[in-house]
Amino acid sequence: MSAPLAPRPAIAGARRVVVKVGSSSLTTLPGGLDAERLTALVDVLGAVRAAGREVVLVSSGAIAAGLAPLQITGRPRDLATAQAAASVGQLRLVQTYADAFARHDVIIGQVLLTADDLTRRSHYRNAHRTVERLLALGVLPIVNENDTVATEEIRFGDNDRLAALVAHVARADALVLLSDVDGVYDGDPRTGPAALLDTVHEPADLASVTLGTAKRNGVGTGGMATKVEAAFIAAHAGVPVVVTSTPQAAAALAGEQVGTMFAPMGRRPSARQFWLRYASRPRGRLLLDDGAVRAVRERHASLLAAGITGVAGDFLADDPVELVAPDGSVVARGLVAYDAREMPQLFGRKSGDLPPEYRREVVHRDEMVLIGRPVAAGSAGAVAAG
Fold first, then answer.
1. Domains of the chain from N-terminus onward
2. Under a CB-based contact definition with an 8 Å cutoff, are residues 234 and 164 in contact?
3. For site-directed labelling of 45, which of 192, 255, 268, 367 has its Cα 20 to 30 A away?
4. Alpha helices (H) along the chain
C-alpha cells in the first residue's frame, strides 16, 4: 500500500526549500547562542538533505550572538554598536552551524547580503549565480543580512523580507518561516481566545486580523506583520509558504498541517519582473497624465513622452523609476530609457515630433511591471500585486 499524501503536497514535494529562522529561536534573551536549539534545527535540516532535498537557510542571530561576549544587555539601539555585535556574533553563529552540520556530513557556505545587493540588478544576478553554484556543489548556503556593513538606508529591516527575496533568487519550490509563534492567529492568543489560521489564499483572508510586531525587549527585529508581508511577497511570486514555530520545522517540511500556509497567489514571474516589483529601489518618478495612466494600466502599453507631465529625482538611463498617476498613486515601475536631465525636453511631445535619438519609448512595456497599490519609494520588499 502506498503512503498517504501529505496534507500539503506542495511543501512535502518541494525539492528546493528556503528555511528562515529568527533570532528568538536560536539565542537567549540576554544574548548568546542557544547551542541546543540550534543543533535541533540542524538535525532537522540534515535529515531533509539526507532525503535528497536542497536547503537554503536564512538565519538571523548574528547581532544577538555577539551581545553576551561583549557584555551588552539587550539589542543595541545605535547602528555602530549593532554592527560591532554582528562582527563578533557572525563568526560564532557560522562556526556553530559548521560544527553542527559536520555531524551530517554537510558543508555550509556563508552568504552575507545587504539590500543593495538585491536592489541592483547586476548584484541580484550575481547573488543568484552564487547560490546556484553552491547548491550544485552540494553546499548548504547560510544567508544573513550583512549587519556589519549595512547602514539604515540599505537594510532589509528583517530577515523575513530577505528570505522572501532569497526564495526567488534561489528559485525555491517552497519557503518556511520559523519563529517562536505557531502561526497566524485570528486574534492575540495571549489575551484571549484565538484560532490558528490553516491556509491563507488571498490578502482579504487577513483583512480583520491585527498582526503583532516584535517585542521591544527582545533580540529580534521581526514580528508576525513582517512574516505575513514576506509570505505575501513569496506567494504572489508563486512560492508556497508556511509560517510556524521552530519546534515544528520537521513537520512543516514534511507537509504536515502545522502552522499557517500561504498558498501561491500567482505565477512565478521572470527574474526581471520580480526584481522590478519587489527588490528594485526606485531612483526617481515620472508623472503621467490620465491618458498615459489608462494606456499603461489597462492596455499595458509602453510609456511614451506624450503622456509625461513631470519628473522627480536624479536618475540615469536604465535606472528603475516609478510611474505616478495625477492623484499620486504609483501605477507601475520600470526601467527608464533616458537620464533625468533629458526628460524635460520630452514632456507632452509626440514621438514623431522628437529628434530621432529620442523617439524610442521612455519605458518599454517589457521593462515594466504594474503596481496594485502605492509602494513606498526605497522599500525593497513592499507587497504589491499587479
1. 9-273 (3.40.1160.10), 280-370 (2.30.130.10)
2. yes
3. 268
4. 9-12, 35-50, 62-67, 79-102, 115-119, 121-136, 159-169, 224-236, 249-253, 271-274, 290-299
pTM metric for this prediction: 0.81
CA dist 242 and 376 (Å) reads 26
As given in the structure block, the three cell numbers for residue 227 are 512574516
Task: Indicate if the alpha-carbon torsion angle 268, 271, 276, 281 is positive or negative.
Answer: positive
**Residue 218 to residue 33: CA distance in whole angstroms:** 14
Which pLDDT tens digit goes with each residue over 239-290?
A: 999 999 999 999 999 999 999 999 998 888 777 788 888 878 899 999 999 9
Unique residue bearing C-alpha cell 563568526? 91
Buried b (16+ CB within 10 A) or exposed e, 196-227: ebeebeebebbeeeeeeebeeebbbbbbbebb
For residues 322 and 363, give the distance between their C-alpha atoms in angstroms, rounded to a whole number.
10
